[in-house]
Amino acid sequence: MSLDTNQSTKQSLDLSPTRLVTPEAPDKSNRLSSTRMGGKMVADYWDNIFTARERGQSVVWYNGSALNPIFQAAGLAWCHGEAFSARLAAMHMEEPAQAAGAEYGYNAELCSYSRTHLGCAVLTQKGTLEKQDGIVGMADQEELAAKLPSPDFFVNAYAGCSTGQQWDAMTYRVFGKELPMMNVSLPMIFGTKPDAGYLRGKEWETTPLYVEKQLHKLIEFIEDQTKRPFDWDALSENMSYIKRASELRIEAMQLCAAAPTPATYWDWVASIAPINFLPANQMLVDYFQAVKDEIEQRIREKVSAVQNERYRVYFDGIMNWNKLGYLTRKFAEHDVAVVAGRYTHDSFWQEPDLIDVDRPLLGMAQHYLICPINHGMKIMEELLLKRCDEYGIDGIAFHSTRTCRAMTNPQQMLARTAERERGIKSFSFEGDVADAAFYKDETLESGLVAMLESIDQQRAKTAQLV
Amino acid sequence: MNTLDPTTFAPLERAAQDPVAYATEWKERTGGLVIGSFPMNFPSELVHATGALPVIVQESRTTITEGRSLLPEFYCSYTRSLADQAATGELEVFDAFVLVDHCVQLLGAADVIQRVIPDKPLHFTQFISSMDDAWSRGAVEEKVQAMRAEVEESTGVTVTDESLTASIRVFNENRRLLREFFDLRRTGRLHIPASALQVLVKSSMVMDITEHTALLQQLLDRLDTLSSAPEHLVRLHLSGHFCAPPRPELLNLLEECDVVIVNDDLYHGSRYISTDVPKDGDPFAALASWYLDRNVNVPCATRVQLDVDWQSYLVDTLADSGAEGVVTLQAKFCEPLMLYYPELRRTLGERDIPELLIETEHEGLAAESIRTTIETFVERIRRQRSKQLLPA
Ligand code: SF4
Ligand code: SF4
């Protein structure tokens, strides 16, 4: 999975309240300003991608894991399918792609990331055929959906979701099976054995080695495509930047254990694109240094991310890209600081200690396998409880994502576990990753209010006992 | 229309309608273990070789109640039914579960089963789903061995080369007999309801395989004179519907609209019986070959393979059976099928082969509206037929 929440040079992300937010309610959210720099970096990245062919650069389309440090070392331009779908949804520009997908035959109940991206593939392919110059030539060039440069080849490395792998098998067919493709298979870490747990047990020790071998094959495949020997030093260098950026990101996240929190889940959402697919370089490190600095400053100056923080909530589920700005304000309106989440905190190079720049592929393989949808229940429960303890969580918001079953899979049971093990209340609301039609505001409003009431009751009871 | 000998057919039908009752009775009778597997690629031979009864867990016809709070409504009916069966005690007969498939919805259901009935071990050994990589075969062979260890742990019995070879032999024989029915139907020498054929396949997934084979043989022996379907009926191929069978009522409804089903690639149909396990060589490696071969024989949308296409298979098989159109049956929310469907539609469309998509749901059948859709579709094929008959 991945995303991009940042601004393009031409179209801007809608982070303003939507019509559904109570108009008279003041905005009580206080987002980090340092993440704006990420917006510019992401916009530049995409602008660069859109012109990759003009510069004669080879283009790889990929989905799933963050293979970009490898692509970067190979001198490729990389287009992450989910990231582009997320970008379109966050900019409210997903409709042309989704319409093209629907016309091609993709059902609305299908993963909206995939059908948005497949719609882009249809438009791109159409444009390629029309223009024969490799630049998407949809009549209306303003349509961002049609701006992806056509690929030279595909790579798929999707953890934890069968749809993720099948999606690229279809993209490959949309392009007439004419372009090379490589699949990296990432087995799920099911974790049912007695020794199994997060980053431990025999299953954990052996599976990354299998994936590491495939990554070596991937590099051979890339060498075949580019007709150049792979630059291993460049990969190590890229991974050293990723490692440092990741350390800073994790340190900054951990500072948010403070109450009131200096930054929220929504700031981490805005920082996903940089960590997940931007070029690994000093700018990336500087970005996360700036984020961390701002958080430290806020702690020093006692500036909170939500005015009058009264509840600390954990967000489980994939992001709802159509509603990013709305949700930010909505939770804050109820004095809720969404402090952490599965999508942000258990993804995206979240274990920098695993990265060994002298053996970069192993740490990469390990990270691909700890994607938050690639664990069985036992590990999911362990991670959820750990985060709840770390961040002093009072309640959990489960985003029941209509077309992303991978993220929705364990939610009902996770809710039971949190209540049983820690007495943590939760609620579930309906929405989707990239299709606004599935969002049901009433389920958010009523669920959130009910959860906050039960937290109040719980607190009152505890106060009486004391 | 041919009739299948009712006395022989009855126990097959009972087992197909109530697999849990069959497994309970088998357990009482033999004192053996019952191991549940999930579709669509578990090699039942591995369990059979331990002396336990391998049963592919079926979708229950029961209305989903408790399962609603375990998996959301936007999951396919099979996985929602599994969650419900776990919560309502319908899976009590099973001593353990085994799974090699990776469909994201199925994994969700597996998580539910593990949590709701934690005393029943659920062993998951993921078979690689990218079928044509240089390392695919080795990866499957390794996983077959891993699953062997799990099955041995659950049953307390060692699977030897000899026991597995013997199991492979009986399953191959069973598939061969089932294919005989399908071949007779495809070549126009057997005309029986599609729902009856479904009973034959479904019962083979849940019954003791030797008992099933004996009944199949008896059915074949007692077949009345072979007869073909009347010419005026429109010949159709049924495609899709993974994991769970389409409702028999839907198959009957199709046939009521002047249709004869001549072939299919349904899981509860040709897909399941398409491929034998190679009988020579290392039997464990043979199971890996079987897994890889069956996606070549009848390609599946849940696997990815660059050099194999479901749509090409379909076009070839239509030429073989003389089917005049395709009805794609899609369990609502089945993502692999939703993803692949446009390619099927495109290919059939390019060849002017009539195609119809019908979505199915656990909760029931909108019979009248489906009937109208099918009738319109049949009419379209008839018109196409008459056009072809007109002199150029
Ligand atoms: S369903 Fe979710 S995890 Fe799967 S491909 Fe789509 S967005 Fe990714
Ligand atoms: S393949 Fe389709 S029917 Fe089978 S479990 Fe997955 S979604 Fe359900």
Automatic annotation (TrEMBL), chain A:
Keyword annotations: Iron, Iron-sulfur, Metal-binding
Comp. bias regions, Polar residues: 1-15
Gene3D superfamilies linked to this entry: 3.40.50.11900
Domain of life: Bacteria
Stretches that traverse the bilayer: none
Region (Disordered): 1-35
Pfam families linked: HGD-D (PF06050)
Family indicated by similarity: Belongs to the FldB/FldC dehydratase alpha/beta subunit family.
PANTHER family reported in the protein's UniProt record: 2-HYDROXYGLUTARYL-COA DEHYDRATASE, D-COMPONENT-RELATED (PTHR30548), SUBUNIT OF OXYGEN-SENSITIVE 2-HYDROXYISOCAPROYL-COA DEHYDRATASE (PTHR30548:SF4)
Designated name of the protein: 2-hydroxyacyl-CoA dehydratase
Source organism of the structure: Citricoccus zhacaiensis
Lineage: Bacteria, Bacillati, Actinomycetota, Actinomycetes, Micrococcales
UniProtKB/TrEMBL annotation, chain B:
Entry-linked InterPro entries: FldB/FldC_alpha/beta (IPR010327)
Entry annotated with the keyword Secreted: no
Alphabetical UniProt keywords: Iron, Iron-sulfur, Metal-binding
Gene3D superfamilies with a match to the protein in the record: 1.20.1270.370, 3.40.50.11890, 3.40.50.11900
Signal peptide: none
Pfam families with a match to the protein in the record: HGD-D
UniProt family annotation: Belongs to the FldB/FldC dehydratase alpha/beta subunit family.
Protein name per the record: 2-hydroxyglutaryl-CoA dehydratase
